């Protein structure tokens, strides 16, 4: 059976480019419509483009919050992309009265005023340790907010734009990228392939 990923519809995600990227790798995609879909999936992808508050509300309206947080707590293969990484935090300055998923400690904050916002285009990704899924390279970003500090218990990568920020998080089978691997050429495709292979290859 071929590898598959289950994509959580946040209502603000560019899922077409994510699906296309996995298609190019020979990986089938399906949509998560129920908590059971998230709980039982071999691999889940949490993409996101848009506002923190709107995406969290969509997750809650579909009743997916507990299934998603339980999945990550149990180290089930999960990939978060762009806004998806930010949704893992406790809060965001973008939607200060909206509780994030609370999987990682801390708040997402706006990029500094002395740089152009949004941070749009290619930038360097530098892993903070060796042997992880993320390797040094250049990735495509589209973000106005960022996680400034690496949370306890996680490894990952950093990028500089108006100061350093977290561009990737890794812990076990969970990978979160502030950049868009699906838009990051061969380097991004290789990253997606390594994540698929490291979480079991075919299913």
Low-pLDDT stretches are none
Structure classification: alpha/beta
* CATH fold description: Rossmann fold
Assign the CATH superfamily: Class I glutamine amidotransferase (GATase) domain
Range of strand content: 25-35%
Cα separation of the termini: 6 Å
CATH architecture: 3-Layer(aba) Sandwich
Q: Which CATH class? A: Alpha Beta
Helix fraction? 25-40%
CA gyration radius, whole angstroms: 15 Å
**Largest sheet geometry:** 9 strands, mixed
Give the overall average pLDDT. 94
The domain count comes to 1
What's the total count of β strands?
Answer: 12
Secondary structure tally, helices: 6
Topology order in helix (H) and strand (E) letters: EHEHEHHEHEEEEEEEEH
The coarse silhouette is globular
Strand order, main sheet: write it out: 2-1-3-4-12-11-10-7-8
Describe it.
The protein is globular, with a radius of gyration of 15 Å. 27% of the residues lie in helices and 28% in strands. The strands form 2 sheets. The chain has a 9-stranded mixed sheet with strand order 2-1-3-4-12-11-10-7-8. A 3-stranded mixed sheet has the order 5-6-9, with no helix packed on it. It has helices spanning 15-24, 35-40, 52-61, 65-73, 83-87, 185-198, and strands spanning 4-7, 28-31, 44-46, 78-81, 91-92, 107-110, 119-127, 137-143, 145-146, 155-160, 164-171, 174-177. It contains 6 helices and 12 strands. A hairpin with a 3-residue loop joins β10 (155-160) and β11 (164-171). The protein starts with a strand and ends in a 5-residue tail after the last helix. The chain has 203 residues and is an alpha/beta fold. It has one domain: Class I glutamine amidotransferase (GATase) domain (Rossmann fold), CATH 3.40.50.
